[in-house]
Write a structure and sequence with these properties.
Layout (H helix, E strand, L loop, with lengths): L2 H16 L60 E6 L8 E5 L3 E3 L5 E3 L4 E4 L4 E2 L2 E6 L3 E8 L2 E8 L10
Antiparallel strand pairs: 1-2, 2-5, 3-4, 6-7, 7-8, 8-9
């Protein structure tokens, strides 16, 4: 007999021995039942994930705390050295400086070395924004660490108790 014929007979024998005969009286196993059991009816429920955000504006955590102060001097470094006042609010100009002025005993006024900034209402330098310009004072908004505080810069004169 050839190998091919022998292999075919061996496969036939395995197939006959492994398959149960119809008249053998054995009951089929759980794998041999007629199809899968009927599925139980289930209700489909669709749940949606809901996100809630705070109603207030949060500070961006990736911006450094001193980012607002990088464009110029801080409020503590500024003083008023001049005001060009006009009845029209947009025409007035406040002169702020990091140096200041010095008044001699004879009344002579001379500037102290420092940068000078000529600002109108709405303009910004450092952490200071000009809000109002009056004949003797300048109202500003100072931003520090994300909070805004309204402050006033005024001329310092000898009659008001100033050092100049």
């Amino acid at each position: 007999m050839s190998k091919r014929l022998l292999r075919g007979l061996l496969m036939l024998a395995v197939a006959l021995v492994g398959a149960p005969s119809a008249g053998s009286g054995q009951e089929p196993g759980p794998e041999e039942e007629e199809g899968p059991p009927p599925a139980e009816e289930t209700d489909l429920v669709f749940e949606r994930e809901v996100f809630q955000y705070p109603s207030f504006v949060r500070r961006n955590p990736f911006v450094p705390l001193d980012a607002a102060n990088t464009g110029g001097p801080r409020f503590e470094q500024l003083s008023v050295i001049g005001i060009m006042y006009s009845e029209k609010p947009n025409a007035s100009v406040a002169v702020l400086s990091t140096g200041g002025v010095e008044v001699a005993d004879d009344g002579t006024v001379s500037p102290v070395a420092g940068d000078a900034y000529y600002l109108k209402v709405g303009q910004r330098v450092g952490n200071v924004t000009i809000v109002e310009i009056h004949p003797e004072r300048v109202v500003v908004d100072v931003e520090e660490f994300g909070l805004t505080d309204r402050r006033t810069l005024a001329f310092q004169s000898r009659r008001e108790g100033g050092t100049q």
